[in-house]
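Subgroup meeting minutes
Present: P.N., E.W., G.H.
Scribe: E.W.

1. P.N. recapped why we're keeping a running log of single-chain structure predictions: easier to compare across weeks, and new members can see raw inputs and outputs side by side.
2. G.H. added today's entry (539 aa).
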Amino acid sequence: MKSYGEMLFGNLAVEHGLIKLEDLEACYALQRQRAANGERLGLERIMLERGLITQASKLQIDNLREKLERRDIDYAFGRLVVEETLVNVDEVERAIREQGKRTEHVSLGQILLEQGALPHDELARLQRLAALKAKQGASASAEVPALAAVPTPPTAAAAPAPSAPAGSGMPPAAPAAAAAVGPAGSPWDTPEVAQLQPGARFGGYEILREVAKGGMGTIYQARHLNLGRIVAIKVLGQSFSAEPTLVRRFIQEAKALAQLQHPNIVGVYNVGKIGGAYFLEMEFVEGEDLHDKIARENPIPLERALPIAQAVVQALKAACEKGIVHRDVKPENILISKTGDAKLTDFGIVKMQGAGSGAQNMNRTRMGDVIGTPYYIAPEQARGEPDVDFRADIYSLGATIWRMLTGRPPFEGTSALDVIAKHLHKPIPPLAEVLIEPKAYAVLARMLAKTPAERHASWDAVAADLDGITKQSGCPACGSPMEEDHIICIECGFNRKVGVHLQTKFGPQVVSRKKRTGRRGTTSSRAGGVKRRRRRRPS
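Output recorded in log:
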């Protein structure tokens, strides 16, 4: 079992170009082998023994790791004090700015204490808890929640949301999908979100049922009493409605959605305040999200995946034309209606491009702002680069299409750091290892390029490439042309239904999904162009 410190050490060594990712994986394998024999060796010692690093480079990585561990603890500390309502977000932001001015590291808790924002008797308890959460967060496995980042110290490489359920970055999916509340596990998670029971009146709406609960509020299915239409109501938590900073963020999300009138984007109808609680009225989408659809079909066939992908392309193109970058494209944020229409949702962390005070406010990053999900995040976004553009969304959509076609994300790992390192350095799995048609694979390889310049230059180019994936597809193993209803490749004997090679090759007429039948009492087939008929034996 890799420790938090070892994972951080290994990933920093790869990130700074001191070793290759393949060498790191080989060191982990050797460490496991020796541990099986009862010998416990640290990762640093193994790297030194194999000559991968020197003492000087080890000291360099140790210094980097120490700084990052301090920042992780500060990040967790900031989340805790906001969650426990000891300090508000503005006070944390002020402390972060002050911390950036110091020449030597001073903990975030100490600065909050100096500013009089934090009670002295709470400092030691919160620091211990923050250190524990920082280690637990960095070593969390499987489905890791969304990452958070801060552009100025402290920054966190990866800190999963403490309140998100195990194995998920979002709340459990509801039977009917609606626009997402926002990523679960934000620093503003609180049990104080107002609970509205079915049948209750909320201003001019009748609450029908709760659909989902997230970081800043709750989504309900409701009926507009005057118009009679069914809508989704996103209600901001009561404690959050008293925070001007959070209210501004909530209204900015509504404004971003209001600019995007598109059939493949969840529409917004109204934003306002009722009884001290801010709310957002949105289109209600009856159906499921793409994550649930993938889990149910696992994987989604190419002919059904492409229309979904094209719909999301059109939605993101419309957003791009308004200067909006989504920054969190993933299956959970794509809703599939009962009629099969795909709609993009959750614009809570959009980046507005362009001038003006509104754009500047949207671009400002706060502590705890979610900037992506590890399985789908673009490399430049993972590095925290401030000027990400629509090509980051192209990368995330490519990862989403990959998951549709394979049932798995392009990169997996034991932690957020492992997944991020692979996004940054490791090429996508080769064609021979995945059941993706060659033309589709070529398009995805371009969408998932490591640098933005290597990806498509526009959404129209993405749409054209997706259109170019024809029904006549190729063998996933050797790339030879195969008809859509053929299962076994005549060139290499690969069975694309079960994903294995057969021992023998077949003739020009390959086994098809369509069973050929002759007259009653006989069956006929063609193998190598020869027709055979077998008569029924008399009883």
